[in-house]
Write a structure and sequence with these properties.
eight-stranded mixed sheet; 42% helix; globular; binds NADP nicotinamide-adenine-dinucleotide phosphate; alpha/beta
């Protein structure tokens, strides 16, 4: 369990009360972002909101939604919340939480007391390079826990609020969810599982909750840089040369945010079910 997440269940920017639990009131959660001048905006929750794709999605949706932001690092969340409130006038609630900490995630979502949720975007995730003979069981469990199990858990907790607003759930998957490759068994397994989760959810909730999966190719984010640093180190260890990371070889996170926007802006009588997006110059 993350002690920080437990000590600071949630903080809304502009009202930076450190909450040990005693002075917490439900009004601090959902009602705080749906009252007064903010009440007409739909509500969107983005996980992994402080970096890469999630950050771009949060910035884009904050233009016309009130926001709930999740990631582990409180400082990053607070800085982002302040920027979004300034840029777009959105009301923002931040939830510092390790999404693999089931008990804290459950406690936090219940404390928000979400009446409705219009958009849920699952962006948090971790890369997992490595050949099968080099991956320990603990590593399999750690990655699947974040990239798959925590997504299913959070979705299940938020389904009542999503149903009340006939909301949309967006899963940020990957080309790796559709195609496997050597050296990526774990990540591909997690993303193939995520595809199955989204497809099953779409059928179970048809008519109540709309479900979109987005399959991005390479995106210029800290995750992609870390991944390519691992590959470069491997190549150098084998005596080969490794090309330097070039942001220009990738899509921008904003391109993926545009794909999310397409799904969000599709009218209620239709749903973008699956959308693959890749760098236009990629073979
Ligand atoms: N980059 C690509 O090329 C690419 C391509 C296809 C698909 N994707 C997918 O897109 C998603 C986002 O990737 P990205 O490249 O934007 O990653 P990123 O830049 O590394 O951002 C990851 C985000 O997730 C949060 N996070 C990580 N572990 C967490 C945990 N245990 N609990 C809560 N939050 C956590 C991080 O914040 P904290 O560290 O503060 O928690 C951060 O906000 C992932 O699912 C990835 O698989 C990426």
């Amino acid at each position: 369990m993350s002690p920080q997440a437990d000590a600071v269940p949630m903080t809304r920017s502009g009202r930076r009360r450190r909450d040990g639990g005693a002075d917490f009131t439900p009004a601090f959660g959902f009602s705080a972002i749906t009252s007064g001048r903010h009440q007409r905006r739909p509500v969107a929750l983005v996980t992994g909101a402080t970096s890469g794709i999630g950050l771009a999605v949060a910035r884009d949706l904050a233009r016309d939604h009130n926001m709930i932001l999740m990631a582990r690092t409180l400082k990053d969340l607070e800085e982002l919340a302040a920027a979004l409130e300034e840029e777009s006038g959105a009301a923002v609630l931040v939830c510092p939480v390790d999404l693999t900490d089931d008990a804290t995630v459950a406690r936090m979502t219940s404390r928000i007391q979400l009446d409705r949720l219009d958009v849920l975007v699952h962006c948090a995730g971790v890369e997992a390079p490595g050949r099968i003979d080099a991956l320990a069981p603990a590593r399999w469990r750690e990655v699947l826990d974040l990239d798959l199990v925590s997504v299913a858990h959070l979705t299940s907790l938020l389904l009542p609020a999503l149903r009340r607003s006939k909301g949309l759930t967006v899963f940020i998957n990957s080309g790796a969810g559709l195609r496997t490759s050597a050296g990526h068994a774990l990540y591909c397994a997690a993303k193939a599982g995520l595809k199955a989760l989204a497809d099953a959810l779409r059928e179970e909730e048809r008519g109540q909750v709309r479900v979109t999966t987005i399959y991005p190719g390479r995106v210029d984010t800290p995750m992609q840089e870390r991944l390519q640093a691992v590959h470069a180190a491997q190549r150098r260890a084998e005596g080969a040369t490794a090309p330097a990371y070039r942001a220009a070889d990738h899509m921008t996170p904003q391109s993926v945010a545009s794909a999310v926007r397409l799904a969000v802006s599709t009218t209620m009588d239709a749903v973008v079910e699956d959308l693959a997006i890749r760098p236009s110059a990629m073979l």
